[in-house]
Specification:
The structure is a single chain. The protein has about 550 residues and is α+β, with helices and mostly antiparallel strands. It folds into two domains: about 35-140, Immunoglobulin-like (Sandwich); about 155-360 and about 370-545, Glycosyltransferase. The protein contains 15 helices and 23 strands. Strands 2-4-7-6 form a four-stranded antiparallel sheet, with no helix packed on it. Strand 20 (about 490) and strand 21 form a beta hairpin. Helix 4 (about 190-205) packs antiparallel against helix 5 (about 215-230), helix 4 packs parallel to helix 6 and helix 6 (about 260-275) runs antiparallel to helix 7. The longest helix is centred in the first third of the chain and has 19 residues, at about 1-20. The model is unreliable at about 1-35 (pLDDT under 50).
Length: about 550
């Protein structure tokens, strides 16, 4: 009993001690706590905007006011200014306002760069107190508005963009197969769909005099010869191939077989080449024969999955239909149904288009966004590649069917995307009528299909530039901004880099086949209609599209 009473007595004394102080006192006198002070005001160029500031000049004035006068001797060791990579930037620091305010002025910051200004708790007051908590400011400098390249006529600028972008497919094409590499870092991986875009890019290159007709023919024949022996799955090519061996490289765990959508991009490019190389000599005749054999071997109707009235994206010899992804509109896959309906050997009937692609009319939208009515698709239209990939060959001008006017659709989709950036509802730094374009691209630490409903502040040049046929004025504004104002931040060896974010001061150094291809092809369609005219001239395409219910002056 005595031990129990002793225990409760000790517990009682412990509780009382806790009530008198933050912690139970050890034997001996209580140690006084360290006093501190705090900051009370903050201005960058006489404006308060929290702890992040955009669009700053290269010599901003930062004023931070504290609750106590500052000890000047502690300034140099406790204030740092670095860029995002940790490199130090020079600055001066002085005191004013009875030494309560620290004035920090960088010597000269670089444009379009993020800097971090840090004030550590070691900054002392005149009475020796420490700062209560550290301070970190994000300082993002503005774009230098000077031109980075000499001004040239608009027509010359378009040619320059096409010529530089053409190098991705010509100079960087895989040495064995000639096919397009997936991206500038993908080594031996080549892409079937991107190679279809590349074939069209080469025809544009011949037309612009970047290469000769003979050089283009030789390269495309090299690609076709490789494709004749590459892996196929009921006639369809996989998304990725080994550029040396032609063996499938899985795009994902179960995606190691046929990819019908990528195959349709490739077939559209090959049919366009077949129409271009229409000479009677042996080389051009052989190319046409080889392309016909490849196209006619694609078993489009097999991909109806057990004869259903919908096309399916994937089939694998190991996983069968496990991917289970029906090809439904509205998106980039209109060309898949067109190529399937146009096949002389394995065509699909109109009901597959109506039921599978059009979902019996469910692809219709009809709502108005930013004052523009959108005939088809998702809210605000989705990423812009929806209006690019299929229309590298399909000419939307004057094209109609039971569901839409496609000239109206593509223009409306693009203008909604443009007006979204111009309106900038998320207040992202850098968006404007000159800086716009949301589509699938690289983003910091990944890849995403950017759109008004999935906006991560990343602009992709391919979005605006591949829209030249639809919005020539707005696209030219964007082109001039990307080229003249952003300069080498966005312009490189193979044309424009994939994407950038002015908000995050992030600039990709990547180039992708599926983004570079539409730039050169759609600029050519805007300038001459070349690829549209070739593709739409193919007799199978005319017959197939008419069979699906399309009407056009070009059919």
């Amino acid at each position: 009993m005595t031990k129990i009473l002793q225990y409760f007595l000790i517990l009682f004394l412990f509780v009382v001690a806790c009530k008198k102080g933050d912690t139970p006192s050890a034997v001996g006198p209580e140690t006084p706590s360290q006093t501190s002070y705090s900051f009370t005001d903050l201005k960058v160029n006489d404006t308060y905007n929290g702890f992040t500031y955009y669009g700053l000049n290269n010599i901003p004035v930062i004023k931070i006011t504290f609750s106590s006068p500052i000890n000047a001797s502690s300034l140099s060791e406790n204030i740092t200014l670095t860029d995002a990579s940790g490199n130090s930037a020079a600055f001066t620091s002085t005191l004013e306002n009875n030494d309560n305010t620290v004035v920090i002025i960088p010597t000269s910051l670089q444009p379009i760069t993020k800097y971090i200004l840090t004030i550590n708790t070691g900054l002392l007051s005149k009475t020796g107190d420490k700062l209560q908590s550290s301070i970190a400011l994000n300082l993002i400098t503005a774009i230098d508005d000077t031109d980075k390249f000499a001004r040239i006529p608009d027509d010359e600028l378009l040619t320059l963009v096409q010529k530089q972008t053409f190098k991705y497919f010509w100079d960087f094409g895989h040495p064995t197969s000639g096919l397009a590499r997936e991206r500038n870092t993908s080594g031996n991986i080549v892409t079937s769909g991107g190679s279809g875009f590349g074939v069209m890019a080469m025809i544009a290159g011949i037309n612009r005099g970047f290469i000769s007709r003979t050089e283009g023919l030789t390269r495309i024949q090299k690609m076709v010869t490789f494709l004749k022996t590459a892996d196929r799955f009921h006639g369809a090519y996989p998304h990725w191939l080994d550029g040396s061996t032609g063996k499938v490289i899985p795009f994902s765990a179960k995606d190691n077989g046929g990819d019908l959508v990528e195959t349709s991009f490739l077939m559209a490019g090959l049919i366009t080449a077949r129409q271009y190389f229409n000479g009677t000599d042996a080389s051009e005749t052989a190319l046409r024969t080889d392309i016909n054999a490849i196209y006619n071997t694609v078993e489009w109707n097999w991909y109806r999955k057990d004869n259903s009235n919908t096309l399916y994206w994937h089939w694998s010899p190991n996983y069968n239909w496990d991917m289970n992804l029906p090809v439904k509109g509205w998106n980039e896959c209109l060309i898949t149904y067109v190529m399937a309906a146009s096949s002389p050997t394995y065509a699909i009937p109109k009901i597959v288009y109506d039921n599978g692609w059009a979902q019996n009319g469910a692809i219709k939208n009809g709502n108005t966004y930013y004052g523009i009515q959108l005939p088809l698709g998702t809210t605000n239209g989705g990423p812009l590649f929806f209006s690019h990939y299929s229309f590298l060959g399909i000419n939307p001008k004057g094209l109609t069917d039971a569901y839409a006017n496609y000239e109206t659709q593509t223009k409306a989709h693009t203008l909604i995307n443009y007006n979204y950036a111009k309106t900038n509802p998320l207040n992202y730094y850098g968006y404007s009528e000159n800086c716009w374009g949301l589509t699938a691209s690289d983003v910091p630490n990944g890849y995403t299909a950017s759109a008004p409903g999935n906006d991560v502040s990343v602009i992709a040049p391919t979005a605006a530039l591949s829209s030249f046929p639809y919005t020539p004025t707005e696209s030219m504004q964007a082109l001039k901004y990307f080229y003249y104002k952003l300069g080498n931040k966005t312009w490189g060896e193979y044309g424009f880099y994939d994407a950038f974010s002015l908000k995050d001061q992030w600039f990709a150094n990547s180039t992708l086949a599926i983004d570079q291809g539409p730039i050169i092809v759609m600029i050519e369609n805007y300038r001459s209609g070349l690829l549209w005219n070739l593709f739409m001239s193919a007799p199978e395409i005319k017959s197939g599209m008419k069979g699906l219910g399309f009407n056009s002056p070009n059919l």
